[in-house]
């Protein structure tokens, strides 16, 4: 059995590759790819012989054709690559080329070479615009009406993948991720980067910038739960999804203030003081379009896990990366 | 001032061209295009000097480039072309090429040559899947989760056009049409074709086939009101749309039985008897995914008109086309 992960140079991709290797039989191989050759994840060193790292620019159809061919069928393909929210807002052409065109070409190549293959696509709750204050969004009670190009491109791929799944071309699973916090690694181009930065950077003794107000509510999920749920996405029987393959993954509603309080509790005053408030209108404008509360009954019914607490989340981060 | 209509060989395009010519100043010109050179609408004969008919295959980028160029800017572009629901379901590749790729290329060409131009896109209520029995859909209370490739392709263009409008690339208006009934002309590849066939054909002394049960509820709109509302779509100030350019147009909920009763009343027993019940599972399967009731408050707030009665609809058809 063989699994492919795109965008695997990123934090989630690296974690996912390590977890897949740790939890699958010795006969399972994993191919990870990114525009820069992805590293072997630290936690996957002992399984390195089952891991292939491929440098590939997925906006090149030749590169996709080489990566995906009938002679090497995958059991599951995880599509994680993409230009993130701030990046796609700042550079429309780049976002649409990577998030829409490259992904669509991958879907078509998969359909042509390994029809019916399982595809786990990391979408985002950014497919939703802002709900009325206090409104709790589920998959059934609110339209996906994105307020960003990033969210629009995610929604378009979801729409295609749902239709491909309905027609039996592919077996898609569209996972709408909350903001993944605390991410190890570096600050990213996502407008949500601050939500990890304000925890991660202080633990590395570095200052972090908070570009939004402390009253801001965010819907987050720990990397621990995200990885668990992305692994689970592969194992859900396709019949269980019903009429749509799109799922709002579980998360946690917290204010930035609560995150800072948890930082203080787990990391102490010295670390808390490294967070500097510096309002940024462009980031705040994007963040304000995200609704901070979701009803994830559907995800629970499909066997996805609830998130851990903010404190446990920070403790896990600190114990692994500091 | 100049206006372009694609898919103008079809019934709605022909009616729209005639109405635009009749209601605009003598300085306004209208270009109508289709894959076969569209005819001059009967009702537009007196304005023929202001009308240009162009044969163009819009899946050819050269044809689009020729039709849309900076030297001949349009004030409004009506995008009406498309492979209809049954056609897109039967031939996926054709549907995606015409409904998605050709339309997307047109949007990009418009953005490049006449940025900010008004674009009225005829979408469809087929962007929605089936709602729970009795549920009344509005733009705000239910997700667009299409059950057909046709609906998926419409939703993708809406998503792009909304993002293009938000960014100021174009000034889009996505009109989700109910089933247009009574259409003059010929039966079409739409799964909804029967809804016009069962009225039109008997009035021409021909048999018509009813492929669904008489209890089936449908959400329809007369051509009279559709044209009125498509003309209105051009005149709504863009600021009025708020966060989304998508509008569920007004319509009428009727059962097939009520349509047949209206046929009997307006057309008499002889015509009513020309409708033959002949169940077709493939058509019924598509029709059953359409929700028959909508809350169109938003459309009314934007100044769109309510539909006329079924009887008045049939009388108008009979007086013009029989």
From TrEMBL, chains A, B:
<dbReference type="InterPro" id="IPR036291">
    <property type="entry name" value="NAD(P)-bd_dom_sf"/>
</dbReference>
<dbReference type="GO" id="GO:0016491">
    <property type="term" value="F:oxidoreductase activity"/>
</dbReference>
<dbReference type="InterPro" id="IPR001509">
    <property type="entry name" value="Epimerase_deHydtase"/>
</dbReference>
<feature type="domain" description="NAD-dependent epimerase/dehydratase">
    <location>
        <begin position="3"/>
        <end position="205"/>
    </location>
</feature>
<dbReference type="InterPro" id="IPR050005">
    <property type="entry name" value="DenD"/>
</dbReference>
<dbReference type="Pfam" id="PF01370">
    <property type="entry name" value="Epimerase"/>
</dbReference>
<keyword id="KW-0119">Carbohydrate metabolism</keyword>
<protein>
    <recommendedName>
        <fullName>NAD-dependent epimerase/dehydratase domain-containing protein</fullName>
    </recommendedName>
</protein>
<keyword id="KW-0521">NADP</keyword>
